[in-house]
C-alpha cells in the first residue's frame, strides 16, 4: 500500500509540473498584463516612457516574451514555489498565498453549506428513486435532477434575484455584508446573522445545481446493487423491504458514494466562480475572475496551481478511500 | 449469381404477402419461408428501445424544435421581413415618471407636490406584434437574436464534440491498444489536461484572443471552439482507453490477431466500433456541457463578440452589477434565452439517457 501511495505521489508531482508549465505558457501569452494596464495612462501623458514600463516588467521577470524568456521566468517562478513563495499579487499588493488564504474561507463555507445540504437531500432521493424504478417518483425526481444540471448558474441566480430580492424583498441582492449597516465591533452574533442572510441565495443556487448529479449517481449505483444476488438472498430470507434497502443494499452503495464525495472535498476550497461573481460574494472565485480579467499574472498562476493541486489531491483521496472503504480492493 | 442479383434487385417484400419472407442461400438458391419470427438488426433494436421511452422522444422533440427555431427561423425572418440579428429598431415611446410629495405650507395647510417628467425612449421596446419579445438595450429584436444565438450555440457544441471525440478516439485508441510506455506517456498527458482548471483557463485564453487585434472578432469563435476542445478531449480519451483495454483481451481480438491485419485496422475497425455505444452516449451528454460552457463565456463577455447574438450575453444584460433595471423590469430580455439554454441542454440529456438505456442489452424494457 505504501508503495502504491509513493507511486501516486510521484505521478501527482509530474502532473502538477506539466500543469504548471501549461498554465504559465498560457498566462504569459496574455498580451496585456496588469503592469500595462496600470502604466497605460502614465505612458499616454508622457510621465513614463515605454522603457520605464519594460524596466518595471524586468523587475517581475515578465519582460521577455520570447520562448527562452518565458522558460527563464518560469524556472524563476518554479524555484520560488518550491521555497513556498508564490510571488506577489499586483492587484492586491500582498503575497499570492496570503490573498488565497484570505479569500478561500468564504468560498469554503459557502461550498461546505451547499455540500452538506446536497448530500442530505440527494442521497435519500436517489435511493427512493432507485427503489421505485420507473415509478412516478422516479420519473419526477429524475426529470427535476436533469433540469437542475441543465440550469446555467447565472440564469438561476438571476431568476432567484428577480423573485426573492426584487419582487419579495426577502434577501439582499449582492455582497456579503450590508454596506449601510454599521455594527459594533463586538456584535459578532449580528455580524454572523447578516452574513448568513447574504449567503442564503448563493447557497441555494449551488445546492440546486449540485443535487441533480449526486442524486443520479446514487440512483445508478443503488440500481446496480439492487440487482445483485445477495439482495435476492436477503429478500428470500424474509427480511422486510426496509431492512433490505437501507441495511443491505445501501451499505454497498456507500462505497462509490464515499469515495466520490471524499474526492470532491478539496474542491470545496476552489470557489464557485460564476455564482460568487453574480452575487458579488468576495470569495476566491470572484477574486480570481477579477484578477484574471486584469492580467495579474502571479495571482493567476498561484490560483490555477491551487486548483490543480486541489484536483490532484481529490483524486488521490478518492483512490485511497476506495481501499479503506472496500476491503476487496487491493491496490498495487 | 444472376439469380442472386435478381433477388436483390426486385423488392421481395412488394411481391410476397407479408407473412412470407424470401432469403437467398449461400449457394444462390432462393428460400421462401413463413415468417414466424422477426429479424431485427441491432440498430433497429436500439431505435425501437429508444422510441419506447417517453423521455427520449420528448428530448428529441425539444432538440428538433431548437434546431428548427435557430436554423430555419432566421431564414424565414430574412425572407419575410428582411432583417437580421443586428438590425436596430428605434421605436419611440414616452416614459413618464411621476413623483409626489406632501409638504406643510406656511398657512398650515398640507399641499401636494406633483411632478411629472417625461422622457423619450427609443430602445427597450415592450412586447408587440412586430417584435414578439420586444427590443433590447441596443434596439435589436430579441426574438430574432434568440434564433441567431441558438445557431452559434448549436454549431459550436456539435463541432467541439466532433473534434473532442476525434482526438479522444485517436489518443485513447492508440494508448489502450499499445499499452506499455505509449500508454504511460499518453495517459500522463491526459492526466495533465484533466487537471487543468477548465473555466479559469478558458478565461485566460479568451481574454488573450479578444485583445489580439490581428484576429478579427468574427474569427474569435473558431479559436473558442479550439479551446473548448482542448479542455474536454481528455475525458473521451480516458473512456476509449478503458473500454479498449477490456476489449483487447477478448477472443475476437485474438482471431483478428491471427489474420495478421495491421494495428491501425485492428484499432479502428475492430476495437473502436465496439466502443461506439458508450461514445455516442457521452457525446450526446457532452453537447449540453459545451453549450453551458459557451454560454458562460458569453455571459462573461468573452464568447461571441458584441453585435452578434449569443444566449449567454443576452442573459448578461440582467447582471445586477450593471444596474437592476433590466433584472427587475425587463424579464422579456433575459428569461427566454435562459429557457432556451435549459430546453437545449435538457433535450440532449434526455436523448443521451434514452440512448444509454437503449444500447444496454441488460435493459429489458
Form type of chain A: globular
Q: Please name the fourth-level CATH homologous superfamily of the largest domain in chain B.
A: MetI-like
Number of strands of chain A: 2
CATH topology of the largest domain in chain B: MetI-like fold
Largest sheet of chain A: 2 strands, antiparallel
* β-sheet strand percentage of chain B: 5-15%
The count of helical stretches of chain A stands at: 13
Give the domain tally of chain B. Answer: 3
Please summarize the sheet with the most strands of chain B: 2 strands, antiparallel
Strand composition percent of chain A: under 5%
N- to C-terminal separation of chain B?
Answer: 42 Å
Mean pLDDT rating of chain B: 81
Question: How would you describe what is shown here?
Answer:
The complex is a heterodimer of chains A (about 325) and B (about 375). Chain A is mainly alpha-helical. Chain A contains 13 helices and 2 strands; from the N terminus they run ααααββααααααααα. Chain A has helices at about 1-30, 35-45, 50-60, 65-80, 95-130, 135-150, 155-165, 190-225, 230-235, 240-265, 275-280, 285-295, 295-325; strands at about 90, 95. In chain A, strands 1-2 form a two-stranded antiparallel sheet. In chain A, a hairpin with a 4-residue loop joins strand 1 and strand 2 (about 95). In chain A, helix 11 packs across helix 12 (about 285-295). Chain A is globular. The model of chain A has no long low-confidence stretch (mean pLDDT about 85). Chain B is elongated and about 115 Å long. Chain B folds into 3 domains: about 1-35, no CATH class; about 55-80 and about 130-365, MetI-like (MetI-like fold), CATH 1.10.3720.10; about 90-125, no CATH class. Chain B is built from 13 helices and 4 strands. Chain B has about 375 residues and is mainly alpha-helical. In chain B, about 65% of the residues lie in helices and about 10% in strands. In chain B, strand 3 and strand 4 form a beta hairpin. Residues about 1-15 of chain B have low confidence and may be disordered. A two-stranded antiparallel ribbon of chain B has the order 1-2. Chain B has a two-stranded antiparallel sheet with strand order 3-4. At the A-B interface, helix 1, helix 6, helix 7, helix 11 and helix 12 of A face helix 6, helix 7, helix 10, helix 11 and helix 13 of B.
